[in-house]
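Renewal narrative, Specific Aim 1. Our central claim is that a sequence can be written position by position from structural information alone. The example that follows is taken directly from our test logs and has not been curated for this report. It begins with the structure tokens describing the chain, in the order in which they were read.
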């Protein structure tokens, strides 16, 4: 009668059955999102706050970027990764529109340190978020 009860698996399921966390890719994605957010808040303070639609969008981008960067690192779920892809792609799309056809009356040029840093960080956010998503969901 030395039967002991069967071991209870951990609450999240067997660790071996869960896909690995792509921690490095998540950190790179978070850094890309955060750099983009910082550039947008700097531009907001540097005069974009006076532009009717674009100013508030820059501030929203900055706040959302900080929140998303934290979520990418602390919440092991696919949603922040999709958010990183969307954040980077849509922010980059808005920038491309502003440099080509205009975006809510704002026409930019693809020259300058802030523009290059933001565009590069948004590309990093998309690529790293996608890499993490693939790494965590492919077996």
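The sequence written for that structure reads:
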């Amino acid at each position: 009668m030395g039967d002991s009860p069967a071991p209870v698996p951990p609450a999240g399921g067997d660790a071996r059955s869960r896909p690995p966390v792509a921690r490095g890719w998540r950190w790179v994605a978070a850094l890309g999102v955060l750099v983009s957010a910082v550039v947008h808040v700097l531009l907001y303070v540097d005069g974009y706050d006076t532009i009717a639609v674009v100013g508030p969008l820059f501030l929203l981008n900055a706040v959302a970027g900080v929140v998303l960067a934290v979520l990418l690192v602390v919440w092991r779920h696919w949603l922040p990764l999709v958010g990183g892809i969307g954040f980077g792609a849509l922010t980059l799309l808005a920038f491309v529109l502003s440099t080509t056809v205009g975006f809510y009356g704002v026409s930019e040029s693809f020259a300058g340190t802030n523009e290059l840093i933001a565009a590069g960080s948004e590309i990093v956010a998309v690529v790293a978020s996608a890499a993490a998503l693939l790494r965590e969901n492919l077996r």
